[in-house]
Amino acid sequence: MAVSDLAGRLGFDKAARLLIVNCDDLGYCHAANLATHRALVHGIATDATLMVPCPWAPEAVRLCRGFPIGVHLTLTSEYEGYRWRGLTRGATLHDAAGFLPRTGAEVLDRLTAEDARAECLAQIETALSWGVDVTHLDAHMGVMQDRADLFDVYLDLAARFRIPVRMAPADHTDRQDFGPRERATARGILFNEHMLYAWPTPTGATLRAELPRLPAGVTEVFAHPAFDGEELRGHGSMAHTLRCDDAQTLVDPDLAALITRHGVTRIGFLALRDLQRRGG
């Protein structure tokens, strides 16, 4: 039987199958805020991560106060009709129009580690100043996890604030030549052991297919819930159907029952943060 040392350290049986259900992109628009709040209150979501530079982030904090929220480190502004800027003014941070770049490839080609550090630190400190008890870090569009020097900044910030991080799926990290999992482990930074990477397919379909074979230990799945409407469609999101499907999935009682039926326990990154801060 497969076992997980992390599950044991968290106080569960080492064969326990633990699932984090995170709502990405909290704060990016009003429709996402409302759907994420519903998923946290009435659904299976255990966490959300906040896009601090986005215009709707302050509303997200007010709406979801008291729920576990991490910081979705944001270095891109990907929509054609809806853009945002970073909090800092690093020379390599913004594109020619003055916004965060639209693609991860553009960010990775131009951004220095120094500018990334300043911007990500500002995003975390801003969330804290708004009263967010930051539970973890993850990376919007994976940018902070896709270059060795940026990944080191990612870990530096996690160590500074004593919080865990999202780790990319093993089939991705195994292809990276800088050993992300080994680097995090060496620094005592906790992370999800497994990842169900649903995007760009519906989260519900992924969960239903993978729950029967979920491994022992901590698995994360992240969704992008948002309510349909003129706002969501108006800023040029090519994935509005997927986001609306995720919004329904996260409050589907049949899926909640399926998680229980397969003996899977939902937890949040807060449990990992508490363990990390205890030095456990």
From TrEMBL:
SUPFAM superfamilies tied to this protein: Glycoside hydrolase/deacetylase (SSF88713)
InterPro entries tied to this protein: Glyco_hydro/deAcase_b/a-brl (IPR011330), YdjC-like (IPR006879)
Top-level division of the source organism's lineage: Bacteria
Cofactors, names only: Mg(2+)
Keywords: Carbohydrate metabolism, Hydrolase, Magnesium, Metal-binding
Protein name: ChbG/HpnK family deacetylase
Source organism of this protein record: Roseomonas fluvialis
